[in-house]
Amino acid sequence: MSIINCLSKNSKGLFTLNTAVETVNLTKYFKGDGGKERIVAVDHVSLSIREGEFFGLLGPNGAGKTTLIKILCTLVIPDEGTARVAGFDVVKDAEKVREYIGWLHGETGGRALYWRLSARDNLRFYAYLQNIPKDVARKRIDALLEFFELDKDADRLVKDFSTGMKMRVMLARTLLSNAPILLMDEPTVGLDATGAIETRRLLQALCKELRKTIVFTTHNIFEAERLCDRIAVMNRGKIIAVDTPLRLSEITRKYRGVEVRFRGSSEEAVRILERLEFVKRIMSIQPEEDYTVIRAEVKDEEQALSEIPKAFSTNGLKTIGVQIALPSLEEVFLNLTGGEHESA
Amino acid sequence: MDLKVEDIVKYLAENIPRGGVGPFEKAVAFIIRDFKIWWTYKLWITLDILSSLTFVATYYFVSMIITPQALIEAGYAADFLTFSVIGISVQHYVFTSVSSLSDAIREEQWNGTMETILSSTTSFRVFLLGESAFRFIIGSYFLLASLGMGVLLGIRLVLNPTSILAVFVLTILLVASHMVIGVLGAAMILKLKQGDPIVWAFSWLTQLFSGVLYPLGLLPDWLKWVGNAFPLTYSLDGLRRCLMNGEGLDSPMIIGNTLKLILFIVVVLPFSLWFFKKSYDSTRREGALGQY
Amino acid sequence: MNQPEILQLFRVEEKRSKSSLRQLFAVVWAQLKMMLAYKSWLVMDLLSTLASVVMYYFVGLQVDPHQLSRSGWGTSYLAFSLVGVATSNYLWACLTRLSHSIQHEIRGGTLETIAVTPINMLMFFIGLTARGYLVSLIYLVGVFTVGVYGLGAKLSFTPQSLFVFIILFVLMLVSNQALGLVAAGIIMVYKRGDPLVFILAAVNEFLAGVLYPLELLKRFPALQVLSMLFPYTYALDGMRRVLILGASVFDVNVLTDILVLGVFSMLLVPLGLKMLGWGYDRIRREGTTSSY
Ligand SMILES: Nc1ncnc2c1ncn2[C@@H]1O[C@H](COP(=O)(O)OP(=O)(O)OP(=O)(O)O)[C@@H](O)[C@H]1O
Ligand SMILES: [Mg+2]
Question: Which of B214, B244, C190, C207 is the most exposed place for a label (fewest CB within 10 A)?
């Protein structure tokens, strides 16, 4: 693929290292109110993100995700530790780093645009700043505007756009420069269902086919589960776990649980399960198309796997399958972060 | 989180009727908010004061090359420094008052807080009152500071009970009449977002035609009438007669000025309120309240 | 357009140019384009600038020509103040523009997004000021036209004097642009520019003798020394010598002014760059690239 050639030509460092983003003990303090108290926004974070990896950052509000991303895109200078992006130090070689990154700040809800310029002019302006040749820029702008379904509104002033439309302009702006490393802070915030799906697909394709490295934060856990190669869970500035979504579920399994799929009345099933002494509690009941899934925490999994189908069939319920339940990423998340949501 | 969902629900289940917060308390809440925001910019406060004082120093030197002939002809005391310091500080004060509303509205739009405030139970009138109150307080502070600086540099103010009473009455009318213009300006800014033409026109027309830096007698006859349209002209003339000559409310010139100011308020106030309502409604119709 | 096509488009490798000039052009282009959304505002500003010249015409009617000529600047206060008011208005407009633009960029969150592009921050700030310089030029020409042709100020506009005027003017811009960069650094950190620009303009106007001959300062040596610290003092002196007294390049005083301005530029430009860098680093350390 030509993009790979282009990358290896442009940044030898990136290719030999094969690491797109690397941080070592990265730390950032902020002054708290009154300047006395210190807030540790990012706390000794050491991460290594491969080139071409789809990397997710999860964490409750105020965990430090935005700060971490801003350090990576040279907008915030860290206090301790180092960070290298595309092989360049974010403090010493900030200008170099900027040539390899595209940044999106979804949280701003579309404020970071020139409201008094049209969508097309916003993109055109940015293309200039990114030193993109005029004809390439024109083609890409047209294509991206069309992709994000903005072609009809392209020449309207951004101030009259809806939040989602502004978000689309911002997405287009980030992709415009064809940067090999995309740092996306909540890229799907404010998008409608189809917009979010299309955006996810595009990001995935960019990552898989063009080997772009994507680091993104989100509050949508299912999105993270579906897209990411690896996920880091952050809380109070610390990375408390980094792994693939599947492994994260296994690691954090703190309880024993089973998942039973069956056909029949779910009230009946609950009654039966509650009578069994090895069942501690019922965690969830989820009706699917023609069967129901019940998840229950148990004292002994082996016993549960053999006893539950028996108990069900004697009561006229048809068991389709029983298996050990892995926690969903949502549970992992609540588990790891202690279920707390601090506000900033 | 310490509180459980059930606890919150229980709290909210108690139905406490709203009310008990009057418009006055709301306006005070606005002032406190503005003061707190202002205070976070501590460093600038001193600079603000300093810079508005340099003009007094400038006119101290300008007055050295000026002959007071025209002032005497116009019936003021022969003292250009006093004349110009009163002129500029009052014009500055009035300009802040006039622009206070539109500035406040722009500020809210920029912050993105405008729509939040308007969606609360606060009426627009209280909103406007609260927004401008603080700016008035700051403006008065500057007015007093520059007059004080002027006294240090030797301006002569004639203060006696009758002139002080007259100054008091005139100041109230001055503020009220310029609030009326301010409401017009606010109505414009709601719609236009930037470059409020009312405040702008007010600033340069009054500079030229209200006699801020020279007695109106110097204007050619065909231009003299323009100043009559502005309450600043009457206020300045009245204030100068009181402060420079010691005239009081019994002087025919002062009575004339007072009556003209009252007339202005009575005629223009209903119009500007109507105009504001119109513009507020049409901005809401366009959905452009929070834009900037 | 669907996804494969987009991907195809991004597979193509493009050669990126390294030209800062293109970036500079882009900033100016975007700024001008946004300004055109407020056309009326432009006209309004022009009118109020012109109004201030007319105002000084009437102030000039009160000036005693003997007093003025005693300090060596001819007998026409109009000519005297015209040069001062025109150029100081110009500088002031540029600085205000810069300060507003920076605040706007920070508040809107666009400074951040621009900062992560490969653009050189210096280019960006120069681009932001360029709009002010270009647009204010219209005011400058307007003011001189009204002053000379409308009000009859006697200024010597010969090719030769214009040439010297332009040299002085450019040096004035360079040295004050450096001050502008210092201001930009401070504004970025403290998020508020108006008081700073205001005091810079007011103090400059006072100490450089925009409205009165500097000879009057002789009685206050401290002020006189202070006034020598501002490059604008020399620029104004030189420009008045050229336009009012008709001095040529070879006039010793004019040459001194040019020389001093050159030295100022050489000292201030590095300082300005330092302050800009300082401010930019500081907001990145504090993480306040988009807060205010
Ligand atoms: N400029 C700043 N000055 C002081 N404190 C800051 C600053 N920026 C962020 N913080 C603090 O740093 C911590 C991390 O903030 P950050 O924005 O990185 O969180 P986040 O993980 O992105 O949260 P969210 O999910 O809400 O976007 C918070 O406690 C916040 O208050
Ligand atoms: Mg965040």
Answer: C190
